[in-house]
Amino acid sequence: MTANGRVVVIGVGNPLRGDDGAGPAVVEALRGQVPENVVLAVSDGEPARMLGLWQGAETVVVVEALRIQPARPGRLHTLTAAQAAGHAPATASTHALGLGECLALAEALHRLPPELVVHAVEVSDVELGTGLSAPVRSALPRLISRTAASVRRALGPDAP
């Protein structure tokens, strides 16, 4: 179990931009599936808001849509904070400022949580419009499962 027990799951994205809604979809799926003391939040990825959401958390789980060229929509990635911060420039979140920049800011401000994991799904369609593409929708159950497993690990074996 974490020292203070505070676990935060942040689904980064915008459900009105196609596959960019994967992170928020995972958060919605986890409602009622994780203990009530787990904070479930949705964010647009803006760094200051992200830092505010995870302030005081022992463990942060970020769920994100990821653009990689060439893309394999639906392929999942699990990254540590260091791996996410060091992602190649050709790899980016679907937001103006990527998660790498957010993590660099958090590190510079000494506001990185003790434990941070990123679960990401590769996407291709982030145009305006609702709904996930078929490959991302098919990957969603595995993405939810990975995220829930990270929460269980953070809470420890004695968690409800």
UniProtKB/TrEMBL annotation:
Pfam families: HycI (PF01750)
Signal peptide boundaries: none
Record keywords: Aspartyl protease, Hydrolase, Protease
A GO molecular function held by the record: enzyme activator activity
GO BP of this protein: protein processing
Gene3D superfamilies reported for this sequence: HybD-like (3.40.50.1450)
Membership in a protein family: Belongs to the peptidase A31 family.
Record's protein name: Hydrogenase maturation protease
Protein source organism: Streptomyces pluripotens
